[in-house]
Design a protein that fits this description.
The complex is a heterodimer of chains A (about 525) and B (about 375). Chain A has helices at about 50-55, 80-85, 100-110, 115-135, 150-160, 180-195, 205-210, 235-245, 300-310, 330-335, 345-350, 360, 380-395, 410-425, 440-455, 465-475, 495-505, and strands spanning about 10-20, 25-35, 40, 65-70, 70-75, 85-90, 165-170, 200-205, 215-220, 225-230, 260-270, 275-285, 290-295, 315-320, 325, 340-345, 375, 375-380, 430, 460-465, 475-480, 485-490. With about 525 residues, chain A is an alpha/beta fold. Chain A has 2 domains: about 10-245, P-loop containing nucleotide triphosphate hydrolases (Rossmann fold, 3-Layer(aba) Sandwich), CATH 3.40.50; about 260-505, P-loop containing nucleotide triphosphate hydrolases (Rossmann fold, 3-Layer(aba) Sandwich), CATH 3.40.50.300. In chain A, strands 6-7-8-3-9-10 form a 6-stranded mixed sheet, with helices on both faces. In chain A, strands 16-19-20-13-21-22 form a 6-stranded mixed sheet, sandwiched between helices. In chain A, strands 2-1-4-5 form a 4-stranded antiparallel sheet, covered by helices on one side. In chain A, helix 14 packs parallel to helix 15 (about 440-455). The relative contact order of chain A is 0.10. Chain B is mostly helical. Chain B folds into 2 domains: about 1-35 and about 325-375, no CATH class; about 60-315, Orthogonal Bundle (ABC transporter involved in vitamin B12 uptake, BtuC), CATH 1.10.3470. In chain B, helix 8 (about 205-225) runs antiparallel to helix 13. The mean pLDDT of chain B is about 90. Classes of the chains: A alpha/beta (about 525), B mainly alpha (about 375).
Chain lengths: ~525, ~375
């Protein structure tokens, strides 16, 4: 939109096409990234963003089409060649050696000999200067595994810059960051742009696109469906282009009618795996017909709380009552029988077996139920039929019960987990980060299901670090900080500002508490 | 980033092992040529030695029986996320159980002794696996280490028993007395003769059928029962198992008991089926070959049976080879077996990448040629 002189694009993709067997991952993708801009690439999971970026980075080669870097045609066969051409990539999962120091990781990236003290000193000087030039604060002597993720990410960026990257690709960079860390990252990206670097931001979070990019390319089903100037578009327009239909950014939800208490927690305490207390004597209730949201910055004890309620973690004190019965000593199987269901925060770690077929994942935790077999035997036909039905009801694609779970997109995996846990007919549903790594279309669907469950008179406890999600779904909001509940707000009184203060550990003013 | 390349199922199950086997045989052929013998002759002798005559087939399947039992033992533990290196010791002690029943049941009818011998073989093998399993489940002692140690303990225990307790009085070699005729598993050639089929005599016995049945049982247990489901979940994702209300410690113990019981089947084949006495070192390394068999057979009973026959053929054909070609001695045959284990077990992923690339290219080309013909 600006009338800048016609510059050679930093990156020019022309007709990139790529197939994996029957999957057409990229369909004649063409777009150009102007030098010295932040360019957004958005699309739902499975839209072909990652494949495209893998091609740009030389991890995969296209079946057809050409790639121009600074106006020069390139054919990468290996990331080495992409790096040599000035392309740097920060993956979603960092490529760092966790038990090395930051400096050792940088030496490794350099391929330089780290043997001599003189070599190390020279390297330290070089990286120190580079970090200073770009305003990247990285403690070079800290062991990487002990650094916060935000700092690890900065180290990855530093690594790329050290390899003289002019074009920096970031794949879902904020997925692992706290809101504050994300803000810092965006400031850094702005500085890099000011220094003339080109940044490609791959994400499915629309707010980020609106906040930092200059231009945005939208992909759907392997093809580019729109290319827009960020200033000339809106959240709603981007969402519609991405999903291909109009979407509700806010769930429609009537007033709740809470009834009897189904889940009651009293002075509950729990520690993490290293024995550090994480939940420090908290009490609350969840009633039939309401959604109670637990807000808070990640790592303030929400995960341990959820695991303790589900029976995966043993409490160090306090009581958990499920429909009036104390279950603190019961294992997960017993709690399930009493009507508890659990959609875990970390889907791949806890909630599914990625190597198993979808149908086998749909009986996880319910493998003893009579409808899935006779006596000690499993009834494969009933399991497959149940899976097919759940897939139809929850719009899981592809609808193949025999497909390995790991082959589904994040959103479809989550729908399968939701289908399984809600399908068990629970009285109380524990939900952790239900839409983490899930695309917009599926988010809307999952939110509707949670509201429907509430309207059916069940109790829902929702733990999420996404404030929008809490505000959109919860009838009552509890805020956790440092393992304690800082305050409770009915939805009507909750604002982002009030919640933000509580999340930061500032207690509600006296008079509100009783 | 460097996840193993994906192959279609048929290629993973058939093509990849075949390529690995061919590579191992090719290298072996080179070795044979260096020794001054014709590789073609050697390969022909190897094959004829394993499958050429009725008794050759009998011997091949007799060896295969041992490998089916130990391969299944390794596979069951594998599905529970455990690496059981102790099939050798479990088979040794399982054989002790078989032998004790056969020695004790001097005057009992065969239909009492033999089922008891089967049960004792399984029970002793399971008991030997129980201690490492319990240590793993309750104390966190790694089952790889403890099962290796239990192999040594089993060997020492058996030597002591055979030298000092079970030895037949008045003889030098550490062997028990012979079992009675009622305590011998019927040979296959004998059974077939009763049905009117004349086949050459070999040590192949009813244990082969028991091994095949054990394979079927393992399949049903792992893939068709709730217990097998729990076992596979615990093996594939222990955290998800806890989430699903499965007790991983109990699964560890159950899987190792079954694993040890299966290994005990080897004692049945060797002692009740062939040697008819307890003797030293009868497992002869089959417990370790079982690891290769399970790897090559993709930890699936059908694959294990196929791989067991292959290794049985290598054993039987190999000894025939060293007999016929004097320059190829027993040690070279062991080298060839080692190469097969190396290529099929350890180095399989070397071929996986190139093979996946080749198949992908073939598919693209066939699609392109189809596309052109449509125009």
């Amino acid at each position: 939109m600006s009338v800048s002189p016609e510059r050679v694009p930093a990156l020019d993709l022309r007709g990139i096409d790529k197939r994996f067997g029957p999957v057409h991952a990229n369909r004649a993708v063409s777009f150009a990234v102007r030098a010295g801009t932040i360019h957004g690439l958005i699309g739902e999971n499975g839209a072909g963003k990652s494949t495209l970026m893998n091609i740009v980075y030389g991890l995969q080669s296209p079946d057809a089409g050409t790639l121009l870097v600074q106006g020069r045609e390139v054919h990468f066969r290996h990331p080495r060649e992409a790096i040599a051409a000035g392309i740097g990539m920060v993956h979603q999962h960092f490529m760092l050696v966790e038990n090395f120091t930051a400096l050792e990781n940088l030496l490794l990236a350099d391929g330089a000999a780290a043997g001599s003290a003189a070599g190390r000193a020279a390297a330290r000087e070089k990286w120190d200067r580079l970090a200073l030039d770009h305003g990247l604060d990285v403690p070079l002597d800290a062991v990487v595994g002990e650094l916060p993720v935000g700092v690890q990410q900065r180290l990855e960026i530093l690594k790329a810059l050290g390899r003289k990257a002019e074009i920096l690709v970031l794949d879902e960079p904020t997925a692992v960051l706290t809101p504050a860390e994300a803000t810092q990252l965006f400031q850094l990206l702005g500085r890099l742009r000011a220094q003339g670097k080109t940044v490609i931001l791959v994400t499915h979070k629309l707010r980020e696109i609106m906040a930092v990019t200059d231009r945005v390319t939208v992909m759907r089903q392997g093809a580019v469906v729109a290319e827009l100037d960020t200033a000339a578009t809106s959240l709603r327009e981007l969402a519609e282009k991405m999903v291909g239909r109009s979407v509700l950014l806010q769930v429609e939800k009537g007033p709740g009618f809470p009834r009897e208490v189904l889940l009651e927690v009293e002075q509950l305490a729990a520690s993490d795996d290293r024995g550090v207390p994480r939940v420090k004597g908290i009490s609350f209730q969840v009633r039939a017909g309401e959604i109670v949201g637990i807000a808070g910055v990640a790592g303030n004890g929400q995960s341990e709380l959820l695991e303790t309620l589900a029976g995966i973690r043993t409490p160090t004190g306090g009581a958990i009552r499920l429909a009036g019965r104390d279950v603190a000593g019961d294992d997960p199987a017993q709690r399930r029988r009493l009507g508890l269901a659990h959609v875990p925060e970390d889907r791949l770690k806890l909630g599914v077996v990625a190597a198993f077929a979808a149908e086998d994942n749909l009986i996880l935790g319910q493998q003893e139920r009579p409808e899935f077999g006779r006596g000690v035997l499993l009834d494969r036909r009933a399991i497959a039929a149940g899976c097919r039905q759940a897939m139809a009801e929850y719009d899981v694609r592809p609808g193949d019960p025999r497909l390995r779970l790991g082959a589904f997109s994040g959103g479809n995996q989550q729908k399968l987990v939701m289908a399984r846990e809600i399908g068990a007919g629970p009285q109380v549903l524990l939900v952790g980060q239900p839409t983490r790594g899930v695309d917009i279309g599926a988010i809307e669907f999952i939110h509707r299901r949670l509201v429907a469950l509430r309207d059916a008179g069940k109790a829902v406890l929702l733990v999420s670090v996404e404030l929008d999600e809490i505000l959109g779904l919860a009838d009552r909001i509890l805020v956790m900080n440092g393992g304690e509940i800082m305050g409770e707000l009915p939805r009507a009184e909750a604002t982002e500002e009030k919640l933000g203060l509580l999340m930061a550990g500032v207690r509600a003013e006296a008079g509100h508490e009783d | 980033m460097s996840a193993p390349a994906k192959l279609p199922r048929w290629a993973d199950l058939v093509l990849l092992p075949a390529v690995s086997l061919a590579a191992a045989l090719l290298l072996s052929a080179g070795l044979v040529a260096v020794m001054g013998e014709s590789p073609v002759t050697a390969l022909r002798l190897l094959f004829a030695g394993a499958f050429g005559t009725g008794d050759a087939i009998g011997y091949t399947l007799y060896y295969a029986t041992n490998f089916i039992f130990t391969g299944l033992a390794v596979a069951v533990a594998y599905h529970a996320g455990l690496f059981n290196i102790g099939a050798e010791g479990q088979a040794y002690i399982g054989g002790l159980g078989v032998g004790l029943v056969c020695l004790a049941g001097g005057s009992w009818p065969a239909w009492v002794v033999l089922p008891l011998a089967v049960a004792a073989g399984a029970g002793f093998g399971a008991a030997w696996a129980f201690i490492p399993a319990w240590l793993q489940a309750r104390r966190g002692s790694h089952v790889v280490i403890t099962t290796i140690m239990f192999n040594f303990i089993a060997a020492a225990l058996m030597t002591y028993l055979l030298v000092n307790v079970l030895i037949k009085p008045g003889q030098q070699s550490p062997e028990s007395r012979e079992f009675g005729a009622n305590a011998v598993l019927p040979a296959v050639h004998g059974l077939l003769a009763k049905l009117g089929f004349e086949v050459a005599a070999s040590p192949l016995n009813l244990a082969f059928g028991i091994a095949l049945a054990a394979g079927g049982l393992v399949w049903v247990l792992l893939w068709r029962t709730r217990w097998g489901y729990r076992l596979r979940v615990a093996g594939a994702n222990p955290a998800a198992a806890v989430y699903a209300g499965i007790n991983p410690g109990r699964i560890t113990i159950g899987a190792m008991l079954l694993s040890g019981a299966l290994a005990g089947g080897l004692g049945l084949n060797e002692l009740a089926g062939s040697q008819h006495r307890i003797l030293l070192d009868f497992p002869g390394g089959a417990g370790f070959v079982g690891i290769a068999v399970a790897l090559m057979g993709r930890n699936h009973p059908v694959g294990i049976c196929a791989a067991a026959v292959l290794f049985g053929a290598l054993y039987q054909g190999g000894s025939q080879l060293s007999f016929d070609l004097p320059r190829i001695n027993r040690d070279l045959v062991v080298v060839i077996q080692g190469l097969v284990i190396l290529f099929c077990g350890a180095m399989e992923n070397v071929w996986r990448g190139p093979l996946a690339a080749l198949l992908a290219r073939l598919r693209v080309e066939s699609r392109e040629s189809r596309g052109e013909s449509q125009k």
